[in-house]
Every structure is written in C-alpha cells, then in structure tokens.
Amino acid sequence: MAKLRFDAAIKIRIGNPYILVSAVRAKKLKAGWKKPMPVLIRINGQPKKAWHINMMPVGNGSFYLYLHGDVRKASRTKVGDKVEVEIAFDATYKNGPMHPMPVWFRDALVKNTKAKKKWDELIPSRKKEILRYLSWLKSNEARERNVVKAVRMLEGKKGRWMGRDGL
After folding, report:
1. Is omega for the bond preceding 124 within 30 degrees of 0, making it cis?
2. In terms of DSSP bridges, do strands 63-66 and 46-57 run parallel, antiparallel, or are they unpaired?
3. For 74-91, what is each residue's pLDDT tens digit?
4. Helix, strand or coil, per DSSP, at residue 21
5. Residue 93 in contact with residue 41, Cβ under 8 Å?
6. Phi then psi for 67, rounded to 5 degrees?
7. Which residue from 87, 91, 89 is spatially nearest to 67, judged by alpha carbons?
8. Quick one: 19 exposed, middle or buried, by C-beta within 10 A (0-12, 13-18, 19+)?
9. Please, how many CA atoms are within 13 Å of residue 95, restricted to the half-sphere of its CB?
10. CA 161, CA 134: separation in Å to the nearest integer?
11. Interatomic CA distance for residues 161 and 167, integer angstroms
C-alpha cells in the first residue's frame, strides 16, 4: 500500500481546515481515482491510530484533505501551521450504504417499478444519504409520510424532500 509523507500548511476553505494534496501525490496513492478517496491519515504523527477520512476531489486530479477536529486536537495544530502529513490509501474501505434498506421502503419500491428503476440508477452516495435519513425515522406516521414523498420523487414528480427539489 502506497504511503505518502510530506510537509504542508493547513489552510481554510469555506470554514473548513484542509491540506491540498496535489494531483501528483494523489496519483501515487491511487492512480485514476476521481471520486472521494478513502485514506488513513496522521498529522505530526498523531493520532496514534491513523484516522479514516475521505479526501474530496478538486476536479483537476488534486484532493482536499479536510482535517477533522479530533485530528487537529490530537496533533495540536491549527490553520496556518506547517505540518508533517502522512497519508495511505485505505484499501479496507467498502463503499455503499451504511444503513440497511428498511423493509417498509423496500416494499414500496417493489410495488412501484418506475421508482425502483430510478432508485437503482441513483449514485451510491445519494442512496447512502437517503438510507441514513430513513434510518432516523421512528414513528409510523413519519415513515409513511416520507415513503410517499420518496416514491413520488423517484417517479419523477415534482416536489421537495430531504431539503431538496428533486433527487
């Protein structure tokens, strides 16, 4: 597994501390990777157990390595500090939904082939977001209300759900 070590300054972007990982460095970690890249990181040798995070693509082959507060706290660093960065591609990472599909949602998709087809076409990160949202629903009323909205949106009908107009 490729591991990189380099010095960089912590910068800030839209309120989030980050380190820019150049396209050349990112290619050494995992050539041709264009989506969020799962990595294990340490800053100034901390935390002791490398932290799992996804680097976010910039669009030109470079990646933003956003630094979680726990990592900054463990490494005693802040924006503007020059740090030693250690990054390794996390080959153990498995993408896909963290939450299982609720039976009540699966049943609604089985009953509606158009909605099921659209669900199957959604990108994995959107599916993951939806399943996480559905897992938080506790009451039957909330589940029923949300399954109706979800199926309508998956059918291509206009509406607003999960803070968005459309899927």
Report:
1. no
2. antiparallel
3. 999 999 999 999 999 998
4. strand
5. no
6. -105, 110
7. 87
8. buried
9. 12
10. 12
11. 8
pLDDT given at position 131: 92
This prediction has a pTM of 0.60
Q: From 75, 150, 76, select the one nearest 111 (Cα to Cα).
A: 150
Per DSSP, what are the bridge partners of residue 88?
3, 40
User: What is the C-alpha separation between 55 and 66, in angstroms, rounded?
Assistant: 7
φ and ψ at 42, to 5 degrees? -145, 140
Tell me which residue of 156, 71, 67 sits closest to 112, measured CA to CA.
Answer: 156
How far is Cα 119 from Cα 29, in angstroms, rounded to an integer?
32
Domains of the chain: 3-89 (2.40.30.100), 103-165 (no CATH)
